[in-house]
Design brief:
The chain is an alpha+beta fold. It has a single domain, classed as Nucleoside Triphosphate Pyrophosphohydrolase. The protein has 4 helices and 12 strands, in the order αββββαββββββααββ. It comes from Guopingia tenuis. GO terms for molecular function: hydrolase activity.
């Protein structure tokens, strides 16, 4: 609890009008991916929206923040309410904040990322989600075009589940006095709001975590063989060369990964 430093500050806080500035709404979303070791597929958990706007479109689970909540708690609550899934670890990795991204209001949305063993969770639709379903990542391709001081990358993502979603999102990087990057949705593929962009951002971040971090622990908590881990990498469209610097690959005991060596 904050303690005012002086009577003047105490008076300032007592008189402060929180309605002086118009406030944006805040929502939280979770991009939850599950790895299926049997099928060797990486799958995204999406919900079909049951209400307006974008009724009938697919989206990552999420919703609005309550005033008394920490955003971590709000992300966990919304995931549980819309999919029935709880007790999964999620990392905050980005904030979506374009002024026109939601037709209802100015909405700023922190984005969370989670990776789980698909067999460990059983989603079911709830709250304002009409349906919850797993969508397999069946395509992840990139084309790049270089300019004098810029690079434009166009990504094609194919997600297959209850429907086939084909997304196209471009990222342009300009190199002038500083680096500037922006993304543009070319084809939303049946996803609500700007969630086609969220799909790309979450997949790029997940691939980085697989390359350099320990997120694979969430799939193989007891350790994995190199073959099992390679299946996960391939499901994320990563090659052996992409992940050769991962510290987990250096920690092996009896042919399996040992996280605490």
């Amino acid at each position: 609890m904050y303690t005012p430093s002086s009577p003047e500050e105490r008076e300032f806080l007592a008189r402060y009008n929180p309605n002086k500035y118009k406030k944006p709404s805040v929502a939280v979303d979770t991009a939850l991916y599950g790895y299926d070791p049997k099928e060797k597929k990486l799958k995204a958990l999406l919900i079909r929206r049951g209400g307006f706007p974008y009724r009938g479109y697919w989206a990552f689970p999420g919703g609005f923040l309550n005033m008394e909540e920490h955003i971590h708690a709000a992300a966990a609550r919304e995931l549980q309410e819309e999919t029935g899934i709880s007790d999964v670890y999620a990392d905050l990795y980005y904030v979506m904040g374009a002024p026109d991204r939601d037709p209802r209001d100015r909405v700023i949305t922190p984005q969370y990322l989670s990776l789980v063993n698909l067999a460990a969770v059983s989603p079911r639709a709830g709250d304002d989600a009409a349906e919850a379903g797993w969508f397999a990542l069946n395509g992840f391709a990139k084309k790049a075009a270089r300019g004098e001081r810029s690079v434009r990358e166009e990504y094609e993502i194919c997600l297959e589940g209850p429907e086939r979603l084909e997304l196209r999102v471009a990222q342009e990087s300009c190199y002038e006095r500083t680096v500037r990057r922006r993304m543009e949705i070319l084809e939303s593929g049946g996803m609500a709001f700007d969630h086609a962009e969220v799909a790309l951002r979450s997949l790029l971040h997940l691939r980085q975590e697989l390359r350099y971090g320990d997120i694979a622990y969430n799939v193989f908590p007891e350790g994995a063989s190199l073959a099992e881990l390679q299946g996960l990498y391939e499901a994320a469209f990563l090659s052996p060369g992409d992940v050769e610097g991962n510290p987990l690959l250096q920690k092996q005991k009896d042919g399996r990964l040992s996280y605490f060596l």
